[in-house]
Write a structure and sequence with these properties.
The chain is built from six helices and nine strands, in the order E-E-E-E-E-E-H-H-E-H-E-H-E-H-H. It is an alpha/beta fold. The protein folds into three domains: 101 residues, no CATH class; 37 residues, no CATH class; 32 residues. Strand 1 and strand 2 form a beta hairpin. The longest helix is centred in the middle third of the chain and has 16 residues. It is globular.
Length: 176
Amino acid sequence: MGLIIDKNVVLIDQKSNEHLVTTKEGNPKNFVIENEYGSIEVTSVFTRLKASSKLRRDRKSKLIGDNCPLIYALKKKDGLTTTFTTMKEVIRIGCEIVDDLNIDPDSSLVCTPSAHNIVKHVANVVARKFRLTVHENLLAKTSILLAVKDLEKALDRTKNFSDAKEIRNQIEKIKN
């Protein structure tokens, strides 16, 4: 089950496998991010799906909703909206996923920056259920210009050829 956009309205569709896994099966998404300072475990209640390779290669045509149309609909961006029924279903499924989470009691919740309060709302639901602390302001959005500058600094410091190549590719992707 995924999302579709029908006349700028974002809806859950059982036949779709686009944008978001909207079932308990396939959720939550767990992964570990590692760097020289250590590692952090990340859990996302819903798994976002990447656009098809064909759509991602066509950089000239911007995807409506930037491959996350539900968030754009909640923010009323790109002319997108959603329905009460869709949100009710997303919340129902989200609660089922949260009920099945296995979270270490020493964990903390860190909210990703968002112009919509849904991230904060979900974090508070999980925090109440598992008696966790929520940190809302540990992460901040950055501008494209600052992201490119940070990548260029990393490029100057790297000595690994494959890392340098990957950083150059990321810089090009951001600039285009």
